[in-house]
């Protein structure tokens, strides 16, 4: 099963699932909005059902929100229309696509990098979508810092179609790879109880 097919299959269930830690999510959004300007054009990669794009829309001029799963984009578009938000565009695109409108003032990727395969090529592509001096804002579960058993459980779940592909790395490895890709980290923190979910803001050099 491809990654896109996995997310298409679970899209409706995913859309119905509540946010695990609402306070941490709100803090993440507030911190992110503080790094953005009203004139910014931003790209969200791995937008899922579009909740983050819709929340950030009031802080910027325009949001282009992409996902590899067409069913996620369908739900995101429906919810955007229901909320009457006009400055968000949703696109179903491959992960390595050059997004129309690139480069952007900022690229946002929440809960995505651990699902994107090897970090180096994923980050190299993301850098091409960020304008000179622009920001890459990410929040990433660092599976390498979690209990060892997850390395055994996730591959087994993936074999039975119960989990997506995932890459294991630590928070230190993530930061190092982001810097190696040509970014300068300007914000590095966590929110809430999930201390393994690293929030990074990095400026393209």
TrEMBL record:
Keyword hit for Transferase: yes
UniProt-listed InterPro entries: SAM-dependent_MTases_sf
GO BP, sorted A to Z: methylation
CDD domains from the UniProt entry: AdoMet_MTases
Entry-linked Pfam families: Methyltransf_23
Extent of the signal sequence: none
Keywords: Methyltransferase, Transferase, Ubiquinone
Molecular function via GO: methyltransferase activity
SUPFAM superfamilies named among the record's database cross-references: S-adenosyl-L-methionine-dependent methyltransferases (SSF53335)
Name of the protein: Methylase involved in ubiquinone/menaquinone biosynthesis
């Amino acid at each position: 099963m491809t990654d896109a097919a996995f997310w298409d299959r679970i899209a409706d269930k995913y859309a119905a699932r509540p946010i695990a830690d609402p306070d941490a999510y709100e803090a993440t959004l507030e911190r992110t909005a503080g790094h953005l300007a009203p004139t910014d054009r931003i790209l969200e990669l791995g937008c899922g059902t579009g909740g983050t794009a819709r929340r950030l829309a009031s802080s910027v001029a325009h949001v282009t929100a992409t996902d590899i799963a067409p069913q996620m984009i369908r739900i995101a578009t429906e919810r955007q229309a229901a909320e009457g938000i006009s400055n968000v565009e949703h696109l179903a695109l491959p992960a390595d696509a050059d997004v129309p409108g690139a480069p952007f003032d900022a690229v946002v990727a929440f809960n995505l990098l651990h699902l994107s395969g090897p970090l180096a090529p994923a980050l190299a592509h993301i850098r091409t979508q960020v304008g000179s001096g622009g920001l890459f804002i990410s929040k990433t579960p660092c599976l390498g810092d979690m209990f060892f058993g997850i390395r055994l459980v996730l591959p087994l779940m993936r074999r039975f179609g119960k989990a997506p592909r995932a890459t294991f790395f630590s928070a230190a490895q993530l930061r190092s790879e982001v810097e190696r890709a040509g970014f300068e980290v300007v914000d590095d923190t966590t929110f809430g109880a999930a201390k393994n979910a690293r929030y990074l803001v990095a400026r393209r050099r």
